[in-house]
Each structure stands twice: as C-alpha cells, then as structure tokens.
Write a structure and sequence with these properties.
The structure holds two protein chains of two kinds.
Chain A lengths: L1 E11 L4 E12 L4 E5 L6 H8 L7 E6 L2 E2 L5 H11 E5 L10 H12 L3 H15 L14 H13 L5 E5 L7 H16 L3 E5 L3 H4 L4 E6 L2 E6 L21
Parallel strand pairs in A: 3-8, 3-9, 6-7, 7-8
Antiparallel strand pairs in A: 1-2, 1-4, 4-5, 9-10
Helix pairs in contact in A: 3-4, 3-5, 4-5, 5-6
Chain B lengths: L1 H14 L1 H29 L10 E5 L21 E2 H7 L7 E13 L8 E8 L2 H5 L4 E4 L4 H5 L4 E4 L1 H8 L8 E4 L2 E9 L22 E4 L25 H5 L4 E8 L3 H20 L10 E4 H7 L5 H31 L1 H9 L4 H37 L10 H27 L3 H4 L4
Parallel strand pairs in B: 4-9, 6-8
Antiparallel strand pairs in B: 1-10, 1-11, 2-10, 3-4, 3-7, 3-10, 5-8, 6-9, 7-8
The chains are: A alpha/beta, B alpha+beta.
C-alpha cells in the first residue's frame, strides 16, 4: 500500500537546516495496521504528513497504492487524498460552524458525489461510529470522544484504502482512547490500511506492527511473532535504516 | 459545488458579523459613490433617442467672421446656432423628410378663472415636424399640420403638467389658452416626456426640462418675437429694431432635419454648400465652406453635453471604489489567514488549491454583492437628495442598466479585494496548520 524509498525531508531557514527525515524507507502492505512511535521532534508527524501527501519531500521516491506519487500536481495529490486517504487528528479538527452531518460531508463534497449518495454514506459512517443520533449537533455540543468519533466517521466516509491517524487519542481519557482504538481496529478489519502515530506504548502495542522513529530515522518492530531486524543491509541506504 | 461554496462563504461571514459588516460597508461606500457619479455620467452621455439618432441631424452653417473662427481653439467647429436669414434661406428645401427651425421664447400664460395667477413660461417655437422627428408622445390630440405651420394658425401644444395645472388633467384639446393677451387653440397635450438630456437645444444647458408650450415657428414675425435663449454675434448690427435683429448675422436659432438615407444626407449637405456658395456672392459666408449636418450623438459631443467635470468625477469615483477595495485587502488577508487551520483540514480532506482559491473568491464576491446591494440603497437615497437639490435639472435615476453596472462594479470590487488574500490562503501548506486547530 505504502512504499517509501529513501525519503528525505529537510526544513530550511536562513541559517539552519533540519533533517526531519533522513533517507527513510518504509513498506506497508495492504490491510496492515501499524503504529509509529517516537519522542517529540523525532519526525513521526513529518513522516505521516509525507505519507498523507500533506507535505512534500526533498529526496527519494514514494509509491501509494502502486502509483508513484513523488511528483504529482497539487490537483492530483488532492484527488488522491480525497479518494484514498482518511485523516484522523489529535485535536479532531472538526469545523466548528458545521454540524456533525456537514463535517462528515466535507470530503464527499470535494469528490462531487450527488446528494443522495452523500447522505447514504454519511449515515453509514455515523452508524459505524455510533453517532446517528447526533446528526444536527455542532462540535461544541459534543464530548471529546464524540468529536473524535465524528472525525473517524469523516475519515472513513469516502471508503479510503488508507487511514492515517496522528495521535488520535492524545486528547482523550483512557476509556475514550480505547473506544477509538476499537474503532480503528474495526476499520482495519473492514480492509483499510491503518497507520497511527502515538506516544502511548500501550495503545501502540495493539497494532500488529510498530515503527519507531528517532531523529528522522526508523526502527521497526513487528509485535506479533518476531522483532524486526534493526538494520537490513539489503534495503539500507547511506542515510537511514530501511525495512 | 458552487452552492456549497456560497454556503461556506455565508457561514464564514456569519462567524464574525462585525468584521463582515465592516467589509460590506467598505464596498457599499465605494459602490454608492461610484453609482452616483456613474449615473450622472450615464445620463449625460446616453443616447436620448437611440432608435433614430442616426437619422436626425443638426444643421450648422459657418456664416461667422472671416477674420476669426467661431471657436478659435478649434477652428473646424461651425457656429452652433443659425441666423434668422439662414433658417429662412434653407427651410424651402424639400430634401429632408422632416425639418424645423426652432428657438425658445418666453410668454405670459393667462389662465381662465381666478384661482391661478398669470405666470411666465418658456415656449418653444417650432414646426409641427418637431413632434414627428423626435417622436414626442401625445396624451390627447396631436401635432399641428403643415398648413398651420405656414399660416400660421393660432394653435399650441401643451405638456401634461400644464394640462394638469390649467385643466385638471382633462382632455383640453380644442380649448383656448391665452398667451400674451392672444387666444390660441390647444391641438395637442403631450404625455410625460423627459429626454435624459435636452438634446434638441442644449445651448442653454443640457439638463433643463423641455418647454411646456409649443407654438408654430412662423408666429415669430407676426408676434415680433425674439429668443429668450443665447444669441451670438460677430458683426455690428445697424439699427435697433427687431427687423434689424432678424436681418443681422446674430445666431440664435436651432435647425433640425430628418434624413433617412445616406444619399438623402449627401444631397442635403450639397444643398447647404450650394446655399452657402450662393450667399458668398452676396458678400456673406466669407469663410471656407464649413457646413455640417451632425447626428444626435455628434451634436451632443460637439456641444460637450458630457461635461469634462463629469468625466473627471467619474474617474475619481471609480478610483474611490478601487481604494475602498484595496483597503479591504488587509482585512480579508487577516480574516482568511486566521482560518488557515480550517483550510488545512479541508486541504487534507481533498480540497485542491484551486478549490480553496475559488471558495475564498466566492466569499469576497458575496461581500461584494452584499456591499453592492447596500451601496445601491445608499445611492438611491443620495440621488433623491441630489434630485431634490436640483429640481429643475435632469433627474438622476438608477435604471436597470445602472443597477446592473453597480452590481458588476461590486463584483469587480470584491475581486480586487479578494484575489490576493485568496491566493495567499490557497498557498498555505496544509500540514503546517493541522496541529494548530
């Protein structure tokens, strides 16, 4: 599903260059559920942004769902984000003056679906997250957990192949966090690939595969059967580790 | 998608009503000022009789001083009025479909009964062709005929306002009207008729009302009339009798002809030149031949009916609107950038830069249209105040074209104000703001 080869990302200011991603290579198969862990500033969000086509990169190549997305126009990247990727953010990022229905509707609007199809999908997505009774509520009228469930519905309403979740439980208590993880697992079981960034080792451990990012480099653990080798010479490059 | 973007824009305006009111008011002020001056310009520059303005011609004959052009700054121009001798000299031509010499006189109206006191009124002396050429609408009766012109018969046409004033608005055709102690029979009552400019005689100002009473031109000699309008002369007139004035080189009459084809126009122009050449033999018309037949719009341009000040004010008004729009750029930029996190979310969910740009342009245009509507309301009030201040002048009224122009200007203003902020917000990198919301 995701194939990153030697991805480099450098933030430049007038005097300083920061290598956020130092030649990172990742391969995530279809239907996988992986978690990305790492300390603050390690580059995990940058990695997620690159995977989500929210940020450009300075070196390397990236294939998403078999398509080389390294050099696409803004329009093409937007189309891919809209059709293939669903995003879940730590701060929910719901639009405050849209109600639940309209928030979930946003990605479908950019896809140009007709009203009947949009309504069907929105109701289906809200059914999955258990919020069909809150259609006309505004974000401010919902609890944090409910807001994040709306965000999950919004992420899956377009039937994406890939769900990217950036600290999806960071603003929630442990009960709510577990609920959201349950939802992510459910979405994963429905066939979507899930990539989740988290600080929480316990939640991360629920993902079958974990990737650790440190200083823009990558360490991968497969939690189910074996620990992945920290260094694989066959796929390595001069700047970082690859798995 | 467009309706969705309008809905988002509307929600965005409601999110910060005070700021939105400020934005709308900024555009509204610009539109109101621009609309007032564009209306003034439009009224002065508009074609007063569009369906036949290319068939109606004003006649100019250059009988002026051989030593000095009538307009020394522009020697090609001929005098803008004719002498009495020349109107009599050319009126015999049978080339025009219709023709009339004319001038404005002033007489005392003596109403019957005791309710109304006698009052002075402007009277247009003209042939019955005046009404046929200029398609003047009649409420009752109609123009007098050629025999009444030639006789001349004691007949008059009055306007609707005079008919209301003197006869309570009833059909007064056939009833008498006393002017300067003589009785005339009313043969026609005009319907309301108010060309945007007094194109048939702008020599005393193009914004005046048409005369309220019309009378056959040939009364000029029996009644011993002279003009109440402008007279221009270049040659000393011997004698101080009215006959001396009529025989002088003083110009004080207007002359219009209707020429329905190019051939008719050329034939008439040749006739005028032949007339002038004939006059040269009599010692008149000593300047090079410079006779003109000017279409309505050429005539209005020649008379500078659109004042230079009106053009200048129009430019200033449009610049005011531009400045109003430019002033809003900063406010819109701040407003849009404060929404960058939301735009980051929309970008993440599939909005392209183009769609973000269009969404914000739609918002600016919504501000523009709301400002335009408010501005139109303000300009209607302003025009009413102006019309009240200048009651006898051409009324400034917003017609459909002006409303359309104002709305167009409001869209342009919205675009001017919004393009840069919309461009800036659509360039925002989505990843940068996603963690800030």
């Amino acid at each position: 599903m995701i194939r990153l080869e030697s991805i480099q990302k450098v933030y430049r200011t007038q005097h300083v260059e920061t290598h956020a991603l130092g030649g990172m290579s990742v391969h995530v198969g279809p239907g996988e559920f992986i978690s990305i862990m790492g300390p603050s500033g390690s580059g995990k969000t940058t990695l997620l942004n690159v995977i989500g086509l929210l940020d450009t990169f300075d070196g390397g190549r990236y294939w998403l769902d078999g398509v080389d997305v390294s050099r696409l126009s803004d329009r093409d990247m937007s189309r891919i984000r809209n059709q293939k990727i669903g995003f879940i953010f730590q701060t929910f990022n719901l639009i405050p003056d849209l109600n639940v229905f309209d928030n979930v509707d946003v990605p479908l609007r950019y896809r140009g679906l007709n009203g009947r199809e949009r309504k069907r999908r929105i109701e289906e997505a809200l059914e999955i997250v258990g919020l069909t009774s809150r259609l006309r509520h505004y974000p401010a009228q919902l609890s944090g957990g409910q807001q994040q469930r709306v965000a999950v519905a919004r992420a899956l309403v377009g039937h994406p192949k890939l769900i990217l979740a950036d600290e999806p439980t960071g603003n929630l208590d442990s009960a709510m966090a577990n609920e959201i993880l349950d939802l992510l697992e459910k979405i994963n079981e429905m066939g979507a690939t899930v990539v989740m960034v988290t600080h929480d080792a316990e939640l991360a451990s629920r993902a079958p595969r974990q990737i650790h990012v440190l200083d823009g480099r990558l360490i991968d653990f497969e939690t189910e059967e074996r620990a992945a080798p920290l260094f694989n010479p066959a796929h390595s490059d001069s700047n970082g580790l690859s798995i | 998608m467009f309706l969705y973007q309008v809905r988002i824009a509307w929600k965005s305006l409601l999110r910060n009503p005070v700021l939105s009111i400020l934005l709308v008011a900024g555009i509204a002020m610009g539109i109101a000022v621009a609309s007032v001056f564009v209306t003034a310009y439009y009224i002065f520059s508009g074609n007063p009789i569009p369906h036949k303005s290319d068939r109606l011609y004003y006649v100019e004959l250059d009988s002026w001083n051989p030593q000095r052009a009538w307009d020394e700054d522009n020697p090609q121009r001929a005098p803008n009025q004719l002498t009495y001798i020349d109107t009599r000299g050319i009126e015999g031509s049978d080339i025009p479909t219709h023709q009339t010499a004319m001038f404005q006189a002033n007489m005392t109206v003596q109403p019957k009964g005791e309710d109304l006191k006698p009052y002075r009124e402007d009277v247009r002396m003209c042939r019955g062709d005046f009404f046929r050429m200029f398609d003047v609408p009649f409420l009752y009766g109609g123009p007098w005929g050629a025999s009444a012109d030639d006789a001349p018969d004691p007949v008059v046409v009055i306007d609707a306002e005079t008919n209301r004033k003197l006869f309570g608005g009833e059909n007064s055709v056939g009833r008498p009207l006393t002017l300067d102690n003589r009785n005339y029979t009313i043969v026609g009552v005009l319907d309301d008729w108010r060309p945007n400019v007094k194109f048939y005689d702008p020599t005393q100002g193009a914004s005046g009302d048409p005369e309220k009473i019309f009378m056959p031109f040939n009364h000029v000699e029996p009644l011993r009339l002279t003009t109440s309008g402008n007279t221009n002369g270049w040659k000393f007139t011997a004698g101080n009798q009215l006959e001396d004035f009529w025989a002088s080189e003083d110009t004080w009459l207007q002359y219009w002809v209707q020429l329905d084809s190019r051939a008719q126009k050329e034939e008439y122009k040749a006739f005028l030149d032949a007339y002038a050449t004939e006059q040269k033999k009599l010692g008149r018309f000593q300047r090079p031949l410079n006779n003109k037949v000017l279409s309505v719009m050429e005539w209005l341009e020649d008379q500078e009916v659109v004042p230079e000040s009106s053009r200048t004010m129009l430019i200033i008004a449009l610049l005011f609107l531009l400045v109003s729009s430019v002033n809003l750029i900063g406010i819109l930029l701040g407003k849009f950038l404060s929404r960058a996190p939301e735009i980051g979310v929309r970008r993440a969910l599939g909005a392209s830069r183009r769609s973000v740009f269009i969404q914000h342009i739609v918002e600016c245009e919504l501000v523009g249209v709301l400002g335009g509507i408010l501005g139109l309301g303000l300009s209607v009030i302003a025009l009413k105040v102006i019309n009240r201040m200048f009651e006898n002048q051409t009324p400034f009224v917003l017609d459909f074209n002006m409303v359309a122009a104002a709305l167009f200007l409001s869209l342009v203003a919205g675009l001017v104000a919004g393009v840069y902020p919309a461009w800036r917000i659509c360039r925002v990198a989505p990843a940068r703001y996603l963690k800030l919301q």
